[in-house]
Amino acid sequence: MSKKELVELLAGQFNKTKVESAEIVDFIFDKISANLVKGNEVAIAGFGKFSVTARAAREGRNPATGETIKIAASKAAKFKPAKQLKDALN
Question: Which protein family is it in (predicted)?
């Protein structure tokens, strides 16, 4: 499902315009992103938990040349599904 499809579904379900629905979807995504940037977890009951994980610096290889390169440390978003979602998928 794309963001556009989510906006259209929200608009149809709650008799909102697509503009209003897009603002709601953007607001939710912005708040989730802002909390992750701060290093906070975002838990949505019945759906799952978003968190930030740290990746250590490491060495890798350039697949084209085989040359060893250094990969800098970074942070990444992580998602862990809730039990209800896991059960629904299986």
Answer: Belongs to the bacterial histone-like protein family.
Burial of 7 per CB tally in 10 Å (0-12, 13-18, 19+) = buried
CB 45 within 8 A of CB 81: no
Nearest to 84, CA basis, from 32, 49, 33: 49
Query: What is the token pair recorded at 51?
Result: 């968190």
Q: With CA atoms as reference, report the closest residue to 79 among 56, 46, 45, 53.
A: 53
What is d(CA 73, CA 68) in angstroms, rounded to the nearest whole number? 16
Q: At what angle do helices 3-14 and 18-37 cross, to 10 degrees?
A: 130
CATH for the stretch 3-85: 4.10.520.10
Tens digits of residue pLDDT in 45-56: 999 999 999 999
pTM of the model: 0.79
